[in-house]
Amino acid sequence: MTEVVLGVCGGIAAYKACELLRLFTESGHGVRVVPTASALKMVGEPTWAALSGRPVATEVWEEAHEVPHVRIGRAAELVVVAPATADILAKAAHGIADDLLTNTLLTATCPVVFAPAMHTEMWEHPATRANVETLRSRGAIVIEPAVGRLTGRDTGKGRLPDPSAIFEYALRVLHHGAKSDLSGRHVVVTAGGTREPLDPVRFLGNRSSGKQGYALARAALSRGARVTLIAANVGLPDPAGAELVRVGTTEELRKATVEAAASADVVVMAAAPADFRPATVAEQKIKKADDGTPAPITLVTNPDIAAELGAAKRPGQLLVAFAAETHDALEHARGKMVRKRADLIIVNEVGVDRVFGQDRNTVTVLGADGFAEALDELSKDDVADRIFDHVVDRLDSQVGAGRSL
Q1: Is 179 one of the annotated binding-site residues?
Q2: What are the b/e assignments for 212-232, b being 16+ CB within 10 Å?
Q3: C-alpha triplet 250, 227, 136: angle, nearest 5°
Q4: What is the value of pTM for the model shown?
Q5: Is 206 annotated as catalytic?
């Protein structure tokens, strides 16, 4: 049984930690809840004890003979602080240990994940930003907060990510370890499939679910990157900490990606943009002719977003493209890699009930330098990690070669 410490601070989002606790316990993890005194004003001790099935210690002096301020941190395999207030981030960054939770943070040798929740002004304050950077520089993982409704009528960045997203993030850290090899990097990931309208109710699209793109976003986040996720018609839970941009058509995807790529170190084009669109969009629903004959639809070619990005690449910027093919996959992929000036291209053979919408994937990674690696069937999360292993290798080699980043 994996031992998890769930630290809970006194933000208004403390009640959401109950759902996070339930997700951990129902998946077989042992959870020790360590709330601050402020958190207990939001959610009482009996609630945490009932949901975790364990007693809840709140003070350093409780059960002092067992030295809880040292024992809890040492025994943990993962510490998650959710919600993490500006106060706890400041204390953790400066090594202050004035209660059981802050003592636990100082003694923990396992990965530590902070899920902040606070008002936008507090999150953007220079003191908080400096504390976050300090924690990240020491290997702690600080998830970017979500954008949405805050306390009262306020809306902005500072909302606690959805508990299910925090849970998925935490599982990645447990299974893959805490990596920070993308810290300080901006990674842009596209996901999903674009839709080109035929009329007000119909569209031309594809079967992409966005699962591989979302897995790539989670992988980059867990390795410390700032992630912009551009999602085309995806109905998956938002990855905790990603800046999410929703688009519908290929032109919308192009505009958002070109804008985000201007400051990106890595662009991963995992979305499946429609290659064609109708030349005209009917203003009303297209009706069948009396004899049932369909009206002809004239298609025009959409812009090649990856090729545009490849032509505009800055020195040191990496472009990762995808090639989803139904036949002759490697041959087509190598041609695409040259045309798009991609550094890596990820190749998979697709079709009905193959890859699209599935949780597993079988891919081949090709490099512009002649590198090739065929991966056995893996979960899409594992595929994402393997892809970023190659990305990090290339970023590191560019730094070693003195290339400007």
Answers
A1: no
A2: bbbbbbbbbbbbbbbbbbbbb
A3: 175
A4: 0.79
A5: yes
Question: Which superfamily is assigned to 3-176 in CATH?
Answer: Flavin prenyltransferase-like (3.40.50.1950)
pLDDT at 358: 78
Helix axes 100-107, 86-94, angle to 10 degrees: 50
Is the pLDDT higher at 328 or at 385? Answer: 385
Instruction: For the chain, give every residue range classified as CATH 3.40.50.1950.
Output: 3-176
* Tens-digit pLDDT profile for residues 198-212: 999 999 998 889 999
Q: Provide CATH code, domain 186-281+295-400.
A: 3.40.50.10300
304 is in an annotated binding site: no
What is the spatial distance between Cα 82 and Cα 6, in angstroms, rounded to a whole number? 7
Contact 203, 195 (CB under 8 A): yes
Give the active site residue among 103, 206, 348, 361. 206
From CA 328, how far away is CA 384, in angstroms rounded?
23
Q: Is 41 annotated as a binding residue?
A: no
Integer angstrom CA distances of residue 29 from 19, 35, 56, 71, 104: 14, 18, 16, 18, 19
Q: Which residues of the chain does CATH 3.40.50.10300 include?
A: 186-281+295-400
- pLDDT of the residue at 57: 77
What would you measure as the largest C-alpha separation in the chain, in angstroms?
A: 88
Instruction: Please report the pLDDT score of residue 361 as a whole number.
Output: 84
- How far apart CA 121 and CA 128 sit, in angstroms, is 10
Provide the pLDDT for residue 178.
Answer: 64
